[in-house]
Amino acid sequence: MIRDSRLLDALADTAIAAGRVILDVYGCDFAVSHKSDASPVTQADERAEAVILADLARLLPGVPVVAEEQVSSGRIPGDLGDLFVLVDPLDGTREFVARNGEFTVNIALVEKGRPVAGIVVAPALREIHVGLVGSGAWAGRIEADGRIRRLPIAVRAAPDEGLTVVASRSHAGAETEALLARLPVARRISVGSSLKFCRVACGEADLYPRLGRTMEWDTAAGEAVLVAAGGIVAGLDGRALAYGRRSWDGAEAFANPWFLAAGSRAVLDLAATRRA
What is the CATH number of the domain that holds 184? Predict the structure, then answer.
């Protein structure tokens, strides 16, 4: 099923349609409320998720869906099985509220605990990134008429002059700053949402360290794009991130551990050893 390019194209169309709904709200005055974890939420999050869920019910009937706003309201599927979908209808709500354009729609297919396909659409920037693990990744610009010129993307070898590191615009903390101080960083890019994974996947950066809180719907689509482009994502223990976890070590359901995302194993290992 997940190797069907028509399905991936249909999911990309779904993400683009959700992006249009988001932009309708983005262009107007909108109210911002806050969830129990103090994270912001707007009408755009809710409307985009409704679009995505309706399409998923048609495209993947019977496949469980873990979607951020549904989980926030207590609606969590029972048995996820071997195949399920992770949805973040608006990743980077803080960027949306700040109106800097660096927010995304994330849709990922997860098989046996690993993201195998991902779509990341940045509607305000008119960017799309799609990855199918084992088959490659591509990116494109969404034109006004809906056409997309697809270009293959791949990670790069880290240059001799030093690393380009992409960090969170809203969430970089003291631990991240301490790590970067110990690495040969030649350039730093700040960007919001899952675009950080995409910048590494496109060969524009070498490392994205996330030493802070994320949820599975924040990362699954971006990880699939990066891995499909030849990159690697691992927790600080060197293990691949596991998806679909209800809880672990006392953490909340669907929470990720801290992780490193890199264009190569060499960069990942360097960051892991310099963290101590």
Answer: 3.40.190.80
- Comparing CA positions, the residue from 237, 228, 236, 227 lying closest to residue 262 is 227
Rounded Cα gap, residues 48 and 57, in angstroms: 15
Strands (E), the chain: 32-34, 40-42, 65-67, 83-91, 104-111, 114-122, 127-132, 136-141, 151-153, 163-168, 185-191, 207-210, 232-235, 259-262
What are the pLDDT digits (tens) for 201-211? 999 999 999 99
Task: Dump pLDDT digits (tens) for 77-97.
Answer: 989 999 999 999 999 988 998
Residue type, 183: L
Domain of 21 in residue numbering reads as: 5-153
Pairing outcome for strands 232-235 and 259-262: antiparallel
Neighbouring residues of 38: CB distance < 8 A, sequence distance ≥ 6 = none
Residue among 211, 134, 201, 154 nearest 177 (CA): 211
- Cβ proximity of 8 and 130 under 8 Å: yes
**Listed residues 153, 184, 218: the one ending a domain:** 153
